[in-house]
Amino acid sequence: MKPENLSKNRERDIRRLHQKKNRDRENLFLAEGFHLLEEALQGIFHPVLEVFVEETALPRLEILAKRFSRLRTVPSYVLSPRQLEKISTEETPQGVVCLCEKKRGPEKGLNEASAPWLLYLEELSDPGNLGTLLRTAAWFGTSPVLLGPHCADPFNPKVVRASAGAIFHVEIREEIEPDVLRELASREGYAVVATVPKGGLPPKAIGKGGRNVILLGNESRGLSKELLGLASQRVTIPRRGRGESLNVALSAAMLLYEVFR
Amino acid sequence: MKPENLSKNRERDIRRLHQKKNRDRENLFLAEGFHLLEEALQGIFHPVLEVFVEETALPRLEILAKRFSRLRTVPSYVLSPRQLEKISTEETPQGVVCLCEKKRGPEKGLNEASAPWLLYLEELSDPGNLGTLLRTAAWFGTSPVLLGPHCADPFNPKVVRASAGAIFHVEIREEIEPDVLRELASREGYAVVATVPKGGLPPKAIGKGGRNVILLGNESRGLSKELLGLASQRVTIPRRGRGESLNVALSAAMLLYEVFR
After folding, report:
1. Do residue A238 and residue B247 have CB atoms under 8 angstroms apart?
2. Sign of the CA dihedral running B92, A13, A153, A133
3. Residue A129 φ/ψ region, left for φ over 0, alpha for ψ in the -120 to 50 degree band, beta for the rest
4. pLDDT tens, N- to C-terminus, chain B (261 residues)
5. Residue A91's pLDDT is what?
6. How many CB atoms lie within 10 A of CB B144?
7. pTM, whole model, 2 decimals?
8. B253 contacts chain A (CB < 8 A)
9. Does A139 contact B247 at a Cβ distance shorter than 8 Å?
10. Looking at domain A110-259, which of 3.40.1280.10, 3.30.70.260, 3.30.70.100, 3.40.50.720 is its CATH number?
11. In b/e form, how buried is each residue of A211-236, taking b as 16+ CB within 10 angstroms?
């Protein structure tokens, strides 16, 4: 590893990736902190292309390079604290920022999905919720995660952070229209289970023999009529107390806990 | 309701409640947005003492006052957008801020705890996690929630927001030392269950007949030896995928889901 200095132009290019339109156009995104770098190096998606490190954090990078030989071939740049602050999306920069390529594993059509459990998220708008959901999906090995249109950008820095590295382990398929989902479900024999805030069956009623896709809706509006119409079953986490609602990421966690119990 | 204007001095006093030391000294805290105001009006803890509303949001306040007669006796103040911004702790103020008194319901000693399930949180430091945990506790009716020393302040605006109003429905007991917990557990016949990131039994092994207190630890360090030493059982959410860890609020949700399943 022979770290170089970062030019003003490159600094500006990196900084532009704070915006979705530039992440989309360049097919790149940022992940911050040594924990995420380590996860990226162990992950199967989204290879690390470049590493930007503050001088004081260089020794830590070198230790990591001993564990991950892959890191030794990644170009690295040494930054002043001020430079790092500029490219960082965190209030308190974590000493290292990595530039990653959005890249899925071997391309598969949805018709080759073979996972027994899928999650489909409709207009999930909060980056923290999406990241937490990906983290839970990674824990339970539920991959791919299907995103409908108008979800938060999974490569938003807040999602990447909240995923705690899961973004590098879980396959994400974006912009799956309800029509495509319906076709997939009928062709591949998935039962469609809708999560609703009240009136559904308890999650233990979900059939565990076959393939299922669990639908989760927008934080305020829940699932649309169109998606509810696809479901053969509706489930609700039973309430015992006075709480008014459950966060969507928590609901997903409880459902996944139940189906893998 | 005859809203008044807010003096500079009062504005400064309210603003000071952004800081923990002032919340502690004054025994007051802030809750923002109409959703939280409604929850506060329905809650059994922490009465609303005053309401600060932006002029454009006045009609909405008046509609709410028709539903909750209690609100009609609460002094209200009309603020300019700039004034509201000053007392608000949100990046995007929600039109209304309420001043609440930290006040538990009828005082009970810990020795009168009668809940079959208690949560004890050790040094839980992230306000979002604490708020989410309170929200889950409200959903499952697990009250009181016991906080050990050095937890995030439950009256921190981020906790209040993440609790989605649960702060007004769930009793919180702060600064419970491990010694006090041990004494409570032995006197009241609670089994102590420690949540550990690996190596524990699956949660379905938790005995559901008796009384149990579930311990959850700090986000990075987990539970201390001292608390682990109190536990007669250790549980872990079984992992199936490659995920490295689970968020503490998610773990708590899955455990509560399991014990009330």
Report:
1. no
2. negative
3. alpha
4. 677 888 999 999 999 999 999 999 999 999 999 999 999 999 989 999 999 999 999 999 999 999 999 999 999 999 999 999 999 999 888 899 999 999 876 555 565 567 889 999 999 999 999 999 999 999 999 999 999 999 999 999 999 999 999 999 999 999 999 999 999 999 999 999 999 999 999 999 998 888 999 999 999 999 999 999 999 999 999 998 877 788 899 999 999 999 998
5. 87
6. 19
7. 0.90
8. yes
9. no
10. 3.40.1280.10
11. bbbbbbbbeeebbeeebbebbeebbb
Determine the pLDDT at residue B47: 95
Residue showing tokens 């690390």: A48
CB distance from B122 to chain A under 8 Å?
no
Mutate to test the interface with B, among A38, A130, A242, A255 (most CBs of B within 10 A): A242
Two tokens, residue B217: 């630890």
Distance to chain A for B257, nearest Cα, Å: 7
Check residue A148 and give its pLDDT. Answer: 96
**Which residue, A241, A218, A240, is CA-closest to A228?**
A218
For B104-127, b where at least 16 C-beta lie within 10 A, e where not — what string? eeeeeebeebebebbbbbbbbebb
Domain parsing of chain B, residue ranges: 4-101, 110-259
pLDDT in tens, A160-182: 999 999 999 999 999 999 999 99
Rounded-to-integer distance, Cα A187 and Cα A213, Å: 13
How do A211-216 and A190-195 pair as beta strands?
parallel
**A56 touches A29 (CB < 8 A):** no
Q: Distance between CA atoms of B146 and B154, rounded to whole angstroms?
A: 11
**A247–B39 C-beta distance less than 8 A:** no
Given CB atoms, is B133 within the 8 Å cutoff of chain A?
Answer: no
Per residue, the 3-state secondary structure of B127-188, as one string, reads HHHHHHHHHHHHHHCCCCEEECCCCCCCCCHHHHHHCCCHHHCCCEECCCCHHHHHHHHHHH
Return the CATH number of the domain spanning residue range B4-101. 3.30.1330.30
Neighbouring-strand partners of residue A212: A117, A191
Residue with token string 């005859």: B2
Task: Give percent above pLDDT 90 in chain A.
Answer: 84
Residue in B142, B239, B257 nearest the CB of A139: B239
Q: Which residue among A141, A241, A261 places its CB closest to the CB of B138?
A: A241
Residue A107 has pLDDT above 70, yes or no: no
The domains spanning B4-101 and B110-259 adopt the same CATH topology: no
Q: Are the C-beta atoms of A203 and B104 separated by less than 8 Å?
A: no
